[in-house]
């Protein structure tokens, strides 16, 4: 037998020995995400439920003018940010990197980028990064 393993079959012995380990990992991660999301929802719904019950008890117009609870957040949400230009630049760059990563991963999963061709992944990522400068600029300008 040849002592060297071919590049394309280097993981075969692990995948054949543990066929259900992948599904167990995916299921485990899904359960953890659902449990943590449920905990966060419980923490957010309890004060929201109290505020809604308190809003429903208000009868007079004088009490209705007082803002409390979640109504206080209204003023902070709809005010413009102090450094709007910096925010728009970061959002545009984030969109550029996110879409570049997504397209590169899709190409790698479809088999267009072979691990045997060294540097193909980085070249693909750089080409997509450069090409996605225009959509990033558009998103930045729309945010600003």
Short description:
By secondary structure, the protein is mainly alpha-helical. It folds into two domains: 11-79, no CATH class; 80-143, no CATH class. The protein has helices spanning 12-17, 21-57, 61-65, 74-77, 84-110, 120-131, 133-143.
Molecular structure report:
The protein has helices at 12-17, 21-57, 61-65, 74-77, 84-110, 120-131, 133-143. The chain is mainly α. The protein folds into 2 domains: 11-79, no CATH class; 80-143, no CATH class. The longest helix is centred in the N-terminal third of the chain and has 37 residues, at 21-57. The model has no long low-confidence stretch (mean pLDDT 85). Keywords: Membrane, Signal, Transmembrane, Transmembrane helix. Belongs to the nonaspanin (TM9SF) (TC 9.A.2) family. Its main location: membrane.
Tags for this model:
144 residues; mainly alpha; 2 domains; 0% strand; transmembrane
Number of spatially distinct domains:
2
* Largest sheet, strands/sense/barrel: none
Order of helices and strands: HHHHHHH
Helix content: over 70%
Q: In terms of structural class, how would the helical and strand content be classed?
A: mainly alpha
Q: Give the overall shape.
A: flat
Radius of gyration: 26 Å
Give the low-pLDDT segments. none
Mean pLDDT across every amino acid position: 85
Count of β-strands:
0
* C-alpha termini separation: 64 Å
Strand content: under 5%
Count of alpha and pi helical runs: 7
Subcellular location: Membrane
Membrane topology: Multi-pass membrane protein
Protein name: Transmembrane 9 superfamily member
Transmembrane segments: 20-45, 86-113, 119-139
């Amino acid at each position: 037998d040849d002592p060297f393993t071919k590049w394309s079959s280097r993981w075969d012995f692990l995948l054949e020995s543990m066929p259900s380990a992948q599904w167990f990992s995916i299921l485990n991660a899904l359960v953890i995400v659902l449990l943590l999301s449920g905990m966060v929802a419980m923490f957010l719904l309890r004060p929201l439920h109290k505020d809604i019950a308190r809003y429903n008890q208000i009868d007079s117009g004088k009490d209705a003018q007082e803002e409390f609870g979640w109504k206080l957040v209204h003023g902070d949400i709809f005010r413009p940010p102090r450094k709007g230009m910096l925010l728009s630049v970061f959002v545009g760059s984030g969109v550029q990197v996110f879409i570049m990563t997504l397209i590169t991963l899709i190409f790698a999963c479809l088999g267009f980028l072979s691990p045997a061709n060294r540097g193909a992944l980085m070249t693909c990522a750089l080409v997509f990064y450069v090409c996605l400068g225009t959509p990033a600029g558009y998103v930045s300008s729309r945010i600003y």
